[in-house]
Amino acid sequence: MTLFELFQYVIIALYLTGTVCFFIGSLKNNKVLGKLGNLSAVGGFALHTLDLLLAVTLYRGTVLSGGYFYFSLLGWSCIFVYFGLWWKLRSTFFALTASPLALLLFLVSLASQSLKVTLPAHLAGLFIGLHIGTIFVSIALMAMAAGAGVAFIYLNNKIKTKANLTGIEKEMPSLNTFDNVNHWSIIIGFPLYTLSLASGFLWARAAFSKMFSWDPKEIVTLVVWFLFAFVFHQRIMVGWRGKKPAILVIIVFVITMISLWGINFFVPTHHSFKV
Asked: Strands 116-118, 63-65: parallel, antiparallel or unpaired by DSSP?
């Protein structure tokens, strides 16, 4: 077993431990398990960061394991965003979205290790640093907004119907907290998504001599951008709060996941994860 493989097994173990601790801790309102989940997430995140650095160093930025690197980086981004929310809110509730998603994405990344993507050396920095880095952080923020949106709708319906709150429902953050998470994620996520698209079009111009080629991935990405821009505008200019932005950001996230899983694997595109 190589050091690279050892890191990966330990990362899986730590993310799995964190996920179990977060779920049981939330169900039982056990603060100790919440802290243990955070410690596991921190350990997994640290090794995950090292794993990604080793991958970049190993391939020297010119040949990257496409499915492995991209899904791994997206999982890393989910934990990164969760830590930001935890620092702001001191609540482990949002780990219920971030931790299992990071674990799933890292497992998928390991199953995709044989897929290779070759990049010109002079474009690798732009492509990875701006395009891939910013879009995955924005997607992670989108995931947190969608998770907060689902929780908002669920809790709001319970309150409106005057149903008794039981178990984890009693320990859920307030509706205002969920709405704020939705707000922060959109306000930060949309500019990052826009920066990613701009750098992607610049990279396409250098790599393919044209900025837009009607590729299926490009079309769906623009659809997501317009929807994301709409909810961003409604949040900032119109003052949308509550259920409307919650529903819309869930739709945006679902379309993004369909694009990531469906188009990249099953539709002919130069963004394909298939060899």
From this structure: antiparallel
CA–CA separation, 20 and 23 (whole Å): 5
Per-residue pLDDT at 125: 54
28 Cβ partners below 8 Å, 6+ apart?
none
Residue 243 to residues 112, 225, 227, 261: CA-CA distances in angstroms? 37, 20, 16, 27
Cβ pair 11, 51 in contact under 8 A: yes
Given a cut of 80, whether residue 163 has pLDDT beyond it is no
Closest C-alpha to 121, from 62, 46, 207, 197: 62
Q: What is the pLDDT of residue 61?
A: 47
Bridge partners, residue 117, by sequence = 64
CA atoms within 13 A on the CB side of 262: 10
pTM for the full predicted model:
0.84
Look up residue 72 and give its DSSP letter. Answer: H
Q: pLDDT for 106-132, tens place per residue?
A: 988 887 765 555 555 544 555 656 777
